[in-house]
Amino acid sequence: MKSAAKYASLIVASIVVLLPLTVVFFAAFKTRSEYSTTGPLTPPRNWFNFDNFVTAFTEGRMLLGFWNTTVILAISLTGTILVGTLAAYAVSRFDFPFKRLVLGLFLVAALVPGVTTQVATYQIVKSMGLVNTPGSAIVLFLGTDIISIYIFIQFMQSIPPSLDQAAMIDGATRFTVYRRIILPLMKPAIATVAIIKGIAIYNEFYIPFLYLRSPDLSVISTALFRFKGPYGAQWETIAACTMIVILPTVVIFLLLQRFIYNGITAGATK
Amino acid sequence: MTTTMQRRPAAVQPAPARPAARRRRWLPWLYLAPALGLLITFTYVPVGNMVFYSFHSWDGLDVTMDPVGLDNYVRVFTDERYWRVFLISLYYFVASFAQIAIALYFAVILSFNTRFRNLFKGILFFPYLLNGVAVGFVFLYLFQPDGTLDTVLRWIGLGDQTRYWLGDPDIANISLAGTSVWRFTGLSFVLFLGAIQSIPGEIYEAAEIDGASRWDQVWHIIVPGIRRIISLSFILAISGSLSVFEIPFIMTGGANGTRTFVVQAYETAFQFRQIGLASAMAVVLLLIVLLVTWIQRRLVPDEEVSLS
Q1: Å from B169 to nearest chain A CA?
Q2: How many CB atoms are located within 10 Å of the residue B227 CB?
Q3: Which of A202, A213, A214, A219 is nearest to A65 (CA)?
Q4: What is the ipTM of this complex?
Q5: Does A261 sit within 8 Å of B125, measured CB to CB?
Q6: Could you tell me the pTM of the whole model?
Q7: Tens-level pLDDT at each residue, chain B (308 residues)
Q8: Choosing among B26, B31, B185, which should be mutated to test the A contact, i.e. which has the most A CBs within 10 A?
């Protein structure tokens, strides 16, 4: 009896999650006239009607959006990993004056919601001449990431310092230790950061919307958002475009489920 | 950076090794420089500038800024357009209680034996991974007149409950807050799930031998065991509900009384070019977030200091 209630609640929750997505999926395959004559819950007549996807790809320049997103993603992720692991190395392997102050600076910064400071940050990015260049998004994704530095510090503390000391006795320099010992051992933490940061960058809307105004610089989020104006009433095209944006997330999620759960837990609790 | 690193403490370093010692003192800063430089440039300098701008009247282009004292702050607190946005945050804040309750319920039942556990876990978590603009469009479609929600309501016999979900100012914020719950429940759920799994299994076994019911276990083992993560969720809920942007911006553009703090700040700064006023709004928001975090740290101190 009790277990029936449990499963009922799970099924209701699943419907609440999946139904809004399913109807958009249906709409993406409907023709213009079919869309206006059938209800949202009616499946499309022809599952192979890819016209809307073609329109979305060509009119919305989705390929350009994917390309721009990929470039920004790749550079930002590499940068985050390098900057973060170097900083974590300094914090966990050196003793230096003002170390607590530096840690405090990182800690307090984690409390400042990025959206609040954008008014002032915009002026700084503008003075650097980066507005309307991919560089703006890249430096901001690098500069606003405190969480990954935490993950790296936490993880590095679990690598025994005796390892690097042994290497240094054998004549390795600090940098060699970082590159040859620390970085390879950090792989799990690097994977965690790459996943959670990667998802965050792929989904980010505010920063590209504010800094990448030119249509040539559209990323996935802003390319999708542009459909709102001229295509306001053409739901079948918007639906196709929405599905195109969601699809990579589904694939990544199905492939990397376990890592994503663990990554989110590791990333959010500290 | 090819210093010869002797593993001797600096105190017993003999005099001739002085240059090496000095280089060693610089070394950690060299590794820290990129992170610290970015942190200061993109977090601390903007916060400082923002406070400075907030006492001036500035359009963001002019070379000169007129000092206006507290005028901007006075406006934020007296002009209804500006303080109203705080009330809108309350919708999202109240909704986050529902979000935490739903997440906790499903985290508990999926921590114990359940058929298709991983499938349900995946379904519940998935919305969190979706692109915010996509979520906005999905729900714009759902809430349309004669759209999905209305069709479903009619189908289950609640046809008279249909309304203008996004057009009616009395209900629009509730629709948007509901969208936000749909989007973020998965995150709370996974955080709770992770925390519950870190409670050793023997504790439940011992409780079961002592005759504790599932309900007792939830109240006396699980909830206290994941206290820290629950309190963290409330912090995220407060700062999250104050900084809502994407959902109202994409779905209604702030129309029908759905303008949130960040939507208003965005318009003030980037459409009406009142940088000073927008900065004052942002400073107020920042102070609220810091205050709330401070209060939370007081109430639920972090027992384990995990840094340094």
Answers
A1: 21
A2: 13
A3: A219
A4: 0.90
A5: yes
A6: 0.87
A7: 444 444 444 444 444 445 666 667 788 899 999 999 999 999 999 999 999 999 999 888 888 888 888 999 999 999 988 888 889 999 999 999 999 999 999 999 898 888 888 899 999 999 999 999 999 999 999 998 888 888 888 888 887 778 888 888 889 999 999 999 999 999 999 999 988 888 887 887 888 888 777 778 888 888 888 888 888 888 888 888 888 999 999 999 888 889 999 999 999 999 999 999 999 999 998 898 888 888 877 877 655 444 33
A8: B31
